UniProtKB/TrEMBL annotation:
Source organism per UniProt: Cellulomonas fimi (strain ATCC 484 / DSM 20113 / JCM 1341 / CCUG 24087 / LMG 16345 / NBRC 15513 / NCIMB 8980 / NCTC 7547 / NRS-133)
CDD domains: arch_bact_SO_family_Moco
Occurrences of domain Oxidoreductase molybdopterin-binding (ranges): 34-180
Pfam families membership: Oxidored_molyb
Taxonomy, superkingdom: Bacteria
Matching InterPro entries: OxRdtase_Mopterin-bd_dom (IPR000572), OxRdtase_Mopterin-bd_sf (IPR036374)
Protein name as it appears in the record: Oxidoreductase molybdopterin binding protein
Length: 200
């Protein structure tokens, strides 16, 4: 059962930055499908994998030593809240994907996380400045309840695609649904098209 913080109800406004059906949220609600993992940074790794296993792996020190980007983006939760101008710091997926050989047939990705959570994302949604491995929020280390030490950040899609506690990205030649997608959530999740559930 999902764990949800208080504060989901909000007043909808005519702000043009709100996708259809969303309301403006000033807090940062916490949603989790299970307990919050606690990770030892001394043993933490992140990898990009293919069918034969890891193609590149970074320790925590190696990942955070890479050139980082400060990112300000609006985020949109499928539970209908939107938070504007959220501030993140992390490493672009463009930089990480450039470190591996990607087969042209690999057009899909599956994010794997601590706790067993997975979510699928077309590879095109991780490229061209659209996605990051984020490890800071609002100038501080990313809190565990918000996905720390690091989460996938794909802000142009509903926020369940920005998988918490991410540990690896698996490159695939065919789409494979993740945790929420198998339970009825949309395979893509574009908030401007209200792609919340199967058939949307």
């Amino acid at each position: 059962m999902a764990i949800v913080s208080r504060g989901f109800r909000g007043r909808r406004t005519a702000d043009p930055r709100l996708p259809p059906g969303q309301y403006l949220e000033h807090g940062f609600p916490v949603l989790s499908a299970g307990p919050t993992p606690r990770t030892d940074l001394a043993t933490w790794t992140f990898s990009i994998d293919g069918p034969q296993g890891p193609r590149a792996t970074w320790t925590w020190d190696e990942l955070t030593a890479l050139p980082a980007e400060d990112v300000v983006r609006d985020i949109h939760c499928v539970t209908k809240w939107t938070k504007l101008d959220t501030s993140w710091r992390g490493v672009s997926l463009d930089r990480l994907l450039d470190a591996v050989e990607v087969d042209p047939a690999e057009q899909y990705a599956l994010a794997h996380c601590d706790g067993g959570y997975t979510t699928n994302v077309p590879l095109a949604d991780l490229r061209d400045g659209k996605a990051w491995i984020a490890y800071q929020y609002d100038g501080a280390p990313l809190a565990p309840e918000h996905g720390g030490p690091a989460r996938l950040l794909v802000p142009h899609l509903y926020f369940w695609k920005s998988a918490k506690w991410v540990r690896r990205i698996e490159l695939l030649t065919s789409d494979e649904w993740g945790f929420w997608e198998r339970l009825g959530y949309h395979e893509h999740g574009d908030p401007w098209k209200e792609q919340r559930y199967w058939g949307d």
